[in-house]
Design brief:
With 205 residues, the protein is α/β, with parallel strands linked by helices. Helix content is 34%, strand content 25%. The chain contains 6 helices and 9 strands. Helix 1 packs parallel to helix 6. The longest helix has 24 residues. The radius of gyration is 16 Å and the shape is globular. The mean pLDDT is 97. The structure holds 5-O-phosphono-beta-D-ribofuranosylamine (GRF).
Length: 205
C-alpha cells in the first residue's frame, strides 16, 4: 500500500478527485494518509475531514524554506508517507518547496498545473493563456524538481480556448480535465509504470 500525502492551500477540488479515486480501480494500491495546508482556513482541509482523512495545518512560523521543508518532512514521515515508499501530491499548494525537500523525496512528488507546460508556468496560467491569445490550452501533471513547473511531464490534457472565453470560463474547462488527469497520473505511479528518463517520463504499457 502506497501512502499519499497531499499538500494544499485552497479549494481542494483536485484533492477531492484524488480522494474519490484512491482505494479502488487503478489506484486501489494507495490511500491518502494526510492532507497538509499552509493555510489553516483552507477549504481543502474540510474536504479531507469529510472523507475521514487526517487534515493538518502547518504550524505558524513554517514560512522560511528550511522550516517549511522540515515541517513537511516531519508530518509526512509521521503519517507513513516516507521518502522511500510514499507519494507527495501538490494540489493547489501555493508555496515553493525548498530544493532540499524536493531532493529528499526525489521522483516521488507530483504537481498539477493549469496549462500545457512549458507554456505559462507560474501564477495565473489561465489568465496568461487568455492574454496571449492561444487557441489550445490544458493541464499538466509533472514530477517536481526544484525549478517551479519545470519537472518531467507525466500527463497532459488539452482543451480548446473558445471565442469569448475569459479566465473563468477557461479555468472551468481546464479544471474538468485536471480532475481526470491527476487520478490517472497517480494510478500510473502506483502501478509502477512511470520511469523518469532525462527530462521526460516513459509510461510502460
Ligand atoms: C488548480 O487549478 C491547479 O491546477 C492549480 O491550483 C488549482 C487548485 O485548485 N495548481 P483546487 O484547490 O484543486 O480546487
Amino acid at each position: 500500500m502506497i501512502r499519499i500525502g497531499v499538500l494544499v492551500s485552497g479549494r481542494g477540488s483536485n484533492l477531492e478527485s484524488i480522494l474519490k479515486s484512491t482505494g479502488s480501480g487503478p489506484i486501489k494500491g494507495a490511500r491518502v494518509s494526510v492532507v497538509i495546508s499552509n493555510r489553516p482556513e483552507a477549504r481543502a482541509l474540510r474536504v479531507a475531514r469529510r472523507y475521514g482523512v487526517k487534515a493538518v495545518a502547518l504550524p505558524p512560523g513554517s514560512d522560511s524554506p528550511d522550516r517549511l521543508g522540515a515541517s513537511l518532512a516531519t508530518i509526512l514521515e509521521s503519517h507513513g508517507v516516507t521518502r522511500k515508499e510514499g507519494l507527495v501530491l501538490l494540489a493547489g499548494f501555493m508555496k515553493v518547496l525548498p530544493a532540499s525537500f524536493v531532493e529528499l523525496y526525489r521522483g516521488r512528488i507530483m504537481n498539477i498545473h493549469p496549462s500545457l507546460l512549458p507554456a505559462f508556468p507560474g501564477l495565473n496560467a489561465q489568465g496568461q493563456a487568455i492574454d496571449r491569445g492561444v487557441k489550445v490550452s490544458g493541464c499538466t501533471v509533472h514530477f517536481v524538481v526544484p525549478e517551479v513547473d519545470a519537472g518531467p511531464i507525466i500527463i497532459q490534457k488539452a482543451v480548446p480556448v473558445k471565442e469569448g472565453d475569459d479566465e473563468d470560463s477557461l479555468s472551468a474547462r481546464i479544471l474538468r480535465q485536471e480532475h481526470r488527469a491527476y487520478p490517472e497520473a497517480v494510478g500510473l505511479f502506483v502501478q509502477g509504470r512511470l520511469r523518469i528518463v532525462g527530462r521526460g517520463v516513459q509510461v510502460k504499457k
